[in-house]
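Fold it.
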Amino acid sequence: MLKAKILFVGPCESGKTVLANFLTESSDITEYNPTQGVRFESCWPALMKDSHGVVIIFNADIPSHLKEIEMWHSCFVQQQLLQDNQCLLIAHHKPGSGGDKGNLSLGAPLNKLKLVHSNLEEEPEEIRTEFIKYLKSIVSSVSESRDREEMSIIT
């Protein structure tokens, strides 16, 4: 069985747990309950080890999140030498926020990443479809890498 390790990271109150639960069909969407995440940067290297992809989730309605995601990208993508196609950027819109999909002003290097909008109230299947596409590309990359490794052992 092929396994892929994908990290869900981003600012507090961005919707990481709600999206993870929705995408894995773990639970129904209910009211907000803060998740006790890994808030200590000293633990991050252990989490990042052997990761194949990173999903950066932010609340598009909170202006400070746009600045914060630059730090998340730097720590979890750039410092791990992941490629742009190994990262997915999700602008999560909470229920009742209106889900404005207007142009977000993302500077480099974030503007090179695949950006999808998530609104579980209005278009829940859209984010599931986009995540499945992303997951398929990660699994394909992991499979190709494993095949190359096996061939190098054989030859």
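The chain is about 40% helix and 15% strand.
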